[in-house]
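note to self — DONT lose this again. spent like an hour looking for the file last time. sequence + predicted structure for the chain T wanted, 222 res
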Amino acid sequence: MHPQAYIFDLDGTLVDSIHDIADALNRALTDHHLQTAPIEMVRGWVGSGLRTLCQRACGNCAPEMVGQVVVSALAHYQRHPVVHSRLYPNIMQMLDLLKEHGAKLGVLSNKPHDLTVAVIDRLGISPYFTDIRGPESESTRKPAPDGARAILDRLNIPPTDAFMVGDSAIDIETARNVGMFSVGVSWGFRPIEEILAARPDFVVCDPMEIPALEKKIPPGSR
């Protein structure tokens, strides 16, 4: 059996963080006398990075105002990265199984790098991961392949032996851009219809299904 790599998205995949993200965003909007957003609306905006999130929340605001909201939201989030955020059920058990199987694990998020690391540290799962990354720049955000390729290089695993696990079409497109197997999860921020429309290689409804995916790869697909 080949050694496997699993690269996980963070928000909506490993961690239910929507309340902390919405709190940081709405505090920033309030700072600048802008209309706050209900959490379900924020849920639909998350996934493309902090700047895009703030742009969506600011609507037709001038770019200068969007920039100020980004700075404020980042500051609020850095002060309170994990208040309500929690691991989804069975995430820890799934990570234990993957490590027992000898898999190599990484995290690739569009959340700023320092916040990605902070959330994982505070939730106690950093020891599971060899590499944890947020985007180095706007141009390297998922679905750009840069981050996933860098993680695979660090893990010394080819894309054909790797899975990208996420809750959005962005994660599935990232996997496709790198040549990895794509895994869509049903429990995240995005509706299952979006996941299915993106045509992932696998769809899972419980984290405990993930360790068995290697056995489901069709012969000759590597």
